[in-house]
Structure prediction request, 698 residues.
Amino acid sequence: MTVTRNETVDTATTFNASAATPALAAARLVLARDLRLAFRRPGEMLQPLVFFAIVTTLFPLAITPELSQLRVVAPGVVWVSALLSSLLALEFLYREDAHDGTLEQYALSGQSLTWLLFAKTASHWLLTGLPLAVMAPIAALALGVPVASVTGIVGSVAVGSIALSLIGAIGASLTLGVRRSGVLLSILTLPLAIPVLIFGASATSRAIAGEDYSAPLYLVGAIAVLGITLAPLAAAAAVRISLE
Amino acid sequence: MSTLGLRGEGLHLWRGDRHILRDVSLELRSGEVLQLTGSNGAGKTTLLRTLSGLVYPEEGRVLWAGEDIRKDLRAYHAQLAYVGHEPPLKTDLTPRENLRYWIGVRQRLTASDIDRALDEVGADEWRERAVRTLSAGQRRRVALAGLKLLAAPLWLLDEPTTNLDTAGQELVGRLIEAHAARGGMVIAAVHHELTLPTLVVRHMQLAAS
Amino acid sequence: MAWTWFHRLGSPPYIYSLAARLTPWFAWPAALLTVAGLYGGLVLAPPDYQQGDGYRIIYVHVPSAWMSLMVYTTMAVSAAVGLIWRIKVAHAVAASCAAIGASFTFAALATGSLWGAPMWGTYWEWDPRLVSELILLFLFLGYMGLRSAIDDVQRADRVSAVLAIVGVINVPIIHFSVEWWNSLHQTSSVFKRAGPAMPPSMLIPLLTMFLAFTLMFVALLLTRLRAEVLSRERSAAWVRDVVSA
Prediction:
């Protein structure tokens, strides 16, 4: 039995009765989903932060317990630990989405993949960068820095971690198709993150010394702004390639 | 002749040395259902992914409503529902939440839309549990609910009846029939024939290279 | 007519034979110019009034550094061409550049280090130019690592192309690092707006070595490209003919 149908059925009106989601709302949903997933697994979400705490304690144990000497290396210790912790969280954020088809559906959603990945990067920063910016002064205080420098530390790590999340997004999307990609992800991301490390640590150390730290902070900010415009684009290209 | 519809023209695709798609052409118009059959590795999934625009063929092109999909891929994707082998669900979220995020990113939908779709696929109390706790068949049903919610005329389905019992397979058949009756079109890669009593179904067989 | 030539460039067997024919035209001049440049630099050029004879390492160090930047740029550009226009040979060219570029970068760092010991009193300094050149080495190694980690050659090509393009930002940083920061490394003596700040007796051997290294790069690139093409097309009939011949 055949069903007769009108050949000129206008599929457009039949099927587009639901309005498409505007871009901002779509980004909010991506962000909301990532945050909700992270809070469903609080243990995993806290792991990078615990890692940060542990790594920063390794340095005084390995170098010297003298606070006067630790004060000098404090900015570097805080920054290197933050960088490594940030890398850990990247795997958590991108790997699963690649495996279960979420990224594929993002690519097929009719929304700009660049924009959706920008939202994903924002969720990485909210889950990792921001908490690290809050934890950094605590670690720094334990390394003997003066209390007055806390705002400077928070500010420099907060801005720098934005740049780190963006650079990390590139590295994570490049290594999507690779098995056991943890080390390769670090090898690719760390060289690109070196400028952020240099200027960020410089800003932090000036803040600790009570000097004006605006110059390196602006440079980190500039890298972050450059990253905002370019990193999601590169990440989207890499994701599309991995879906081919 | 209606230009609304999908056309694949002379598609060739290589993966490394393997010539997976050899000069594949097809045409699909409003209300039509095409079943893709072929042994494992024959290229059914590859063909679906090429038609969806995810994969770029070495030769040939895909046209939607007379236009090359590459001209405006995002507009094409807004008209396309692609459900692959694995349902795109996050295991830590409930079916409701999954649908809200998966479909919500594409189109506006309300909570009652989601509930109605879940009703249709037979989701009872398990719609409130994390997908992690659901069976493969239940997850497949959630994916079908998503399909129902997607306001897209073209459906590309990769083995839609996997893990489903007889009732589930009939559900798939009903969904496809209703979709075709509304003027939609479906390409489904299958291992077993779908039960579609009210439709004339076209077939295409892919041969392994 | 021109289109036919361009189209044939995309054909692997043509590229293979073209590269074979072109290589000697680059290899021999490279060898001759290297000898000439080294003779000019090591023997003919006068000693520097400050550094004596120790400065002569610049005849290897500076061309290596220039080449490291040039090779990376070549790699990034051909990767971009392959990515955007989907030309497979472009990807093969990019792949062939990587090891050569890494070698030049390492040579620049090593010769710089050997020069630094007598001149600055240290084998290494953490100043912007050295650090960014080191980052360049990491980028080359990362590129090669990423390629080898992905089994599917096509995907490896395309993913590593994205990496190469992203890393291009490092090239101007290396070049301008001595202008932007107070660096231990000396500022540009050759690429100045007012003309080079070097006497001709030193400049000419330097430029000769630069030309020699460039030709050497092309010769090496063509040789590696042939191996790349053979490897990629290994199942094609023409490859079997070439290998069995």
